[in-house]
Amino acid sequence: MTNARGLTEAALLTGLSVVLYLGANFIPVLGIGLIFLSPVPLVILEMRHDLKMGFVSLIVGSLLAMLVSGPVSALSYAFGFALMALALGRIIELKTNAIEIIGWGSLVSLACKLALAVIMFYVTGINPMNLDMPSVQKALDWVGTLPGISITPEVRAQFEQMFRMVPLIVPAIFIMAAVMDCMICYWVSGKVIKRLNHIELPKLPPFTHWRFPASVLWAFAACIICSLLGQYYPQLAILTRAALNVTLLVQYLFVMQGLSFIAWWLESKGITGFGRNMILVLAFFMPLLSQLTTYTGMFDMCFNFRERIGRRR
Fold this sequence. Notes:
Blueprint: H1 3-26, H2 31-37, H3 40-48, H4 51-69, H5 71-94, H6 98-124, H7 133-144, H8 153-165, H9 170-197, H10 215-232, H11 237-268, H12 273-285, H13 287-303, H14 305-312
Helix pairs in contact: 1-2, 1-3, 1-4, 3-5, 3-9, 4-5, 5-6, 6-9, 7-8, 9-11, 10-11, 11-12, 11-13, 12-13
């Protein structure tokens, strides 16, 4: 690839990344999808060129974002997406196992998000660990004035309690967001690279084969103990907060394993495609079904239902 052609391609990929990122600010519904797609062009850029070209692209893209939407947007683009994308592209070149790629990519994504949170705190003074409850209450008051919407005192109390919990679970939110960003970026990048270069990236195991180690159950038990210690000994209150975050992460793993088992069971009954996916969506989002899915994942971790059922056939 000639230098001029390489520069042209890098410029196009950088521009596409910035357009996708900025488009998320102006397109209400589709914006969520666009913001997840914005790192993909930079993953491809790093894989087709090198890190030097990637960092030049990061600087140029950040400047473009700043010119269009201001310095805060530029910082968010650079630390929230571009750095993770370049790192993921490099990790893909170095590793041959999809789980390793996702693991290292998620760590980089988490580091970038933490760095962004620190920088944004010093730039804007907004601390994600401390939620401004008066602003939340004003927002709830405003929502209550909208036509056709009425917020009862009970519902309002639930919302306020939920928002009070958010600062306590910020670490867990950061970790889950980092993993989700990395997995979506890797999956979409794989589709694009396969079409452009006819290269297939390492694949994750089929979802029906996903299993997490039984040691996760010990982490859950440790969370219960730490939570009790924090309640009975105020000087150990930090244990309660740590246990809350780890519990959320562990419950997320329970849900994923439960969904994996349900997907395996449905496929064993010949239910695949759209029907299976709709059942999985309902099992994830409906509160009662989600709770049952959590328990299913917990017991599957302990007893390995798939192996036991398979033996009986």
